[in-house]
Structures are given as C-alpha cells and as structure tokens.
Amino acid sequence: MENLILKTGFENVISNDNSEHKLQIMSLMTVFMQNALKTANIYTKHSNRNIITSMDISLGLKKELFTFLDNDDIEERALKIYNDFKQETDEYSEEDDEEDGENDEYSEENDKEGDIDEDFKKSDCDCEVCKKTNECAELWKTWKPSNRIEEILYSSIQKIDNNY
Fold this sequence. Notes:
mainly alpha
C-alpha cells in the first residue's frame, strides 16, 4: 500500500478481503485518538490540574472532530501506524497462537487502588490549543452531524458526556 486514502470507501470495489481497509481505518482512528489525548493532556496541564478527566478527553475528541483534517501529517503518521499494525499482524500469524499466560484484562480493583478524585476545571489559558478546544466545545452545543461517520463519532462522544 503506497498511500492511505482518506475516503469513505463507498465508491471502491467491494473485495472479499477487508483486512487492508480495516488496518487503514484503525490507523486513522489511532492518529485521531492520539491527537485527542494530546489535546486532553495539554488542556489538563493548562487548567492547573494533574489528572486527565473524562471531560478533558471529551473536549479533546470534540476538538479533533472539527480539526482532524487540518493536520498536515495525518497520512504520514497513519501510514507509519499502518505499517506497525501490518508487521504485528504478520508476526502474530506466524506464531502458533501460543498463550504466554499473561492476563491483560482490566480490573476495577487495580483502578481503585490509584483512584484520586480531581474536579474538572475549564482552562482559561490563551494558548492556541486551549482556545480552540473551548471554541469547539461551544460549537458542539449546536452542531449536527452531516454524515454517518460524524454520527458515529458524535454518538460516541455524547456517551462519554453522559457518563459524567
């Protein structure tokens, strides 16, 4: 694969093997999430807080929804992630699916051990990231999705908002 295509894929010929398309989508979503989490981290620090809250993540996701395609390096970063995913899947398929005995499952007990409450506080910082994040949060209040991908992202972000 030479380049990642930033299209919906609806006009593409349907093939029996979607694995390439799935890896491409996973790669783009990984870049999307990395950007959103980076924004949440910056926003948290600029709010003089130490713990990233679900609200910070929600704000990062909202900002990313509105600004994702404005990033110049999406294709390059997604291609690198794609190649990493491809290499991992190739290595995994070469193994005999032997289990190594490790348990990577999430445990609420483990989470509660380090649970520290910190209230969300809006950032009043004048940096570009915080200003844009606050602008996107305001825009979100009246914005309506215009396609299926936006609807899926909107619904997912609303679920986060509804949990806090």
